[in-house]
Amino acid sequence: MPNPKSILEDAWCFMSNRVLFTAVELDLFTKLAGYHYTAAELARDGGWDERALTRLLDALIALGLLQKEAGRYRLAPGSDTLAANHPESIRPMLLHLNHIWRNWSNLTDAVKQGRNDNLHTIGQWGGEVQEAFIGAMHVIGRELAEEIASGLDLRPFRLLLDIGGASGTYTMAFLRRNPQMRAILFDFAPVLSLAKSRLAAEGFLERVTLAAGDFYTDELPAGCDLALLSAIIHQNSPAQNVALYEKIYRALVPGGMVLIRDHVMDDSRTQPPAGAMFALNMLVNTQGGDTYTLAEITADLTTVGFTDVRQLRSGPRMDCLVAANKPR
Q: What is the pTM of this model?
């Protein structure tokens, strides 16, 4: 049960979050990976104020992320994944969270007005930040993608259309489990350049067709028997989702299936708790996005002709799955 002490402890958490985001933004963990530096050396290298940097470094020690001996700072055990050069780096996700910090600062006004009039979109962030966002999605999605792919029997399907598939995290997971399958990865051209490198590195490029486009304005590649919408519908308004479902319906062959991975809320819209919080994330970070109940998703899919809408998987994260079929 909440009490004044626990509420205040939660309220103070913004300070530790901001310390972490600033350290990641300054790329301190990469600079310290494998090295021991004094605050003066780091300040001189970065062109920063030594006193202010020292306070930040000491706060990172308080958070258990750094250690200090004889005035020299080094990474604490386990902090190496915050460095950009770590093979399992989580820095891209933290950069993404740092960039949406500004939108969350407008939550009060968004609740008053029903929208965020000072919205900073991913498209406005530019190439470096957009690349960080794509990297972030790979960081948080790679294990879940394998988990989801391993739980599905997709043996009847031959051609996957991964819509807004980013760097191919789910495409690769599905192809790894289904040797009979090929895929079309559909996303913006700059994103596909990142996907091409990752697909080539993991040996999947010959099984994937890269198709550049914008699912808001362009038709989708036709002829697939399986379409995947992974973490897409929450960024859309209901009208945008219906329009997208119509495009998917046209792209699928008769008997084809659409798979939707996202939060799926209960009828009270309070469960899962992460989905309730994510609805606010969409309020401040999109123009019309939200999290949706199974009834809402079902209504929108059936509106455009899909049948047999069912929930295949429930979970506390953005790991719910809904499937529907195009009639034969």
A: 0.90
